[in-house]
Structure formats: C-alpha cells, structure tokens
Amino acid sequence: MKVKTILVSQPEPETEKSPYFDLSENCKVKVDFRPFIHVEGIASKEFRQQKINIQEYGAVIFTSRNAVDHFFRIAEEVRYNVPDTLKYFCMSESTAYYLQKYVVYRKRKIFHGRQRIEDLMPLIKKHKDEKFLLPCSDILKKDIPEALESNDINFSRAMLYKTVCSDLSDLENVNYDVLVFFSPAGITSLFENFPKFKQNDTRIAVFGATTAKAAEAAGLQIDIAAPKPEAPSMTMALEQYIKKNNKK
After folding, report:
1. Nearest 10 degrees: CA dihedral of 61, 91, 184, 222?
2. Domain 5-36+166-245: which topology?
3. Domain limits of the chain?
4. For 6-19, what is each residue's pLDDT tens digit?
5. What is the mean pLDDT of the chain?
6. How far apart are CA 221 and CA 223, in angstroms?
7. Which end of the chain has fewer CB atoms surrounding its CB within 10 Å, N or C?
C-alpha cells in the first residue's frame, strides 16, 4: 500500500530546514506532527521530599533544555540564589548555549560534549573533586548514571520533571498511513489514549532499539526502523520505504 500520510509523534520542527519538510516535498506525502508525550515539572514540595540541598553542589550536569528549565524553576521556587561560581556540564553544545536564557554565558564556567555522556566524561573527570547534581525526569537513560558511577563521580539525581502522556482524543477518528515513534513512552501514550488500537494497515516506524522493543511488546508490527547503516536517520528510513512502496 502506498504511503500518503505520516504522523510524527514529536513537536513540529521550529526551523523550515527540517529534513521532514524535504521528505514531504520530495516524496509528495503529507507529514503532520503531534507530541505523544510531554513533560510536567514537579512541585517544589515534591522536590523537597528528595532531601536534596542544592547549595551543596558545585556543578550541574544538564542532559537537555528541559533539565535546564526545571533546574532554574526549582531554584527560584526554593529561593536558591544560583552562584556565579556554579559549573555547568552540558550534554550538547545547543544545551550549553540555551543556558544564555538564565545566565551571562561568557561569565560562567560552561562545558559541553557532543551528545553522548562518553564525550562529556573527560571534562567531568577534570573536575572530579566537585559534587555534581544531575537534574532529570522520571525517565533517564541508564548509561548516564552508569558512566558517572563507573568513573567514581560524586553525584546525585534530582527528579525535577515527569514525562506524561499527552491527550490525543481528537485523533480518534483520524487515520495515518505511518505512525513514527522515538521512545517507549510514545508507544505507551498510543495505547493509553486508544486502548483498542488495531494496527491493521498502519505502518509503524521506530527509532532506536528500546522503542522497537516496546513496540513489539505491545504487539505492533514494525515496518520501518532506524538507525541502520543504510538509513542512519528516521527521515532517510522513511524516504527509502516510501520510494519502494509507492512505486507499486
């Protein structure tokens, strides 16, 4: 069956240069975006129950922009004046630059990696005497705390926000040829919103092994998967599938 419509379970890209827009134009398909999950900050009362005193930490590890936002939100709610001496270790350059929303960038000690904890670890190890705070959600890739523990880094996890399922009730009678997922939480959201969901002719696209595992556990048949050597990105995997199937 030909592919004419695709629903990507993420927010619509903020830039017009997104490869999804190129995919839509090149393959003559309609691509819609809808986040199946979103994050909600925990209340300061719930944070205090974790018995974490932010003042004890000389460095913070940020895995995402959400972590940045909720760290400074909680800091304000608990009346913690973030000192100029605080060191920031960011998983990516874009997250590091995002700090400009809250601090004067050039006057702070800010370090960043290239997306993976392995890239950031050499910088963290240079400051091994510091006590690190790791702001995170209720869902955290285990490779991050495992890497910190294996390198004997003194750190504490601070759960500042939660990943929750979005309300998708308005999509109940809307059908797409392809549904694209990027996390197990997205699969959970699908069935939480539509407990009686039947795949039928809907193609399922997944990114990453954990997402694939969640889809299979939910009884879904995976038609498109990335990353692969021939398709390192989801848009490449989709394009290859569409060009093959739409010829029929």
Report:
1. -170
2. Rossmann fold (3.40.50)
3. 5-36+166-245, 40-163
4. 999 999 988 788 89
5. 93
6. 6
7. C
